[in-house]
Amino acid sequence: MVNISSTNRSLARNAHVxxxxxxxxxxxxxxxxxxxxxxxxxWPKCNILDPxxxxxxxxxxxxxxxxxxxxxxxxxxxxxxxxxxxxxxKTDYLQHATNEEPDIIITNPPFKDALNIIKKALDDVxxxxxxxxxxxxxxxxxxxxxxxxxxxxPKYAFVHHKRIGFTESxxxxxxxxxxxxxxxxxxxxxxxxxxx
Length: 196
Description:
By secondary structure, the protein is α/β, with parallel strands linked by helices.
């Protein structure tokens, strides 16, 4: 087990293959309930892709599990870079040609590749479709991402008021997390924020 804090986070991430952390299903379900109260989607009829699906011999894939728990019979196409993942396709999403335009792309991307994954997802998703990413709240900061925000502001940001625990013990670090929600082609000047 790796303990994570703001002071040893970079060292902890080096110990995780492909920046892999188990996203708690309960936190995803909390977000899905809130998002669904704002954006009414017929989830079972949506073409959904999780490009960083995770899962392993001890843990299910978090987003597909949460989606099924919340909305019933849903098929989520899954990709992951790790050979031991439970994803149907084992490849690097950033190098993967998506053959169809999903209605929704939803995942917890590896932090170091998050911006590139978001950009690719916005290219891959259908017009009017949704890209939903679990990110650090401070992802809104940095000079590197300012130009991106100027062009691709998300429509919604759902801030988790309780810090998410990614360790086996459920311990948390000093980071707040958000689910950022972009609707392709609808990039407002201001993001609507809700604390959940």
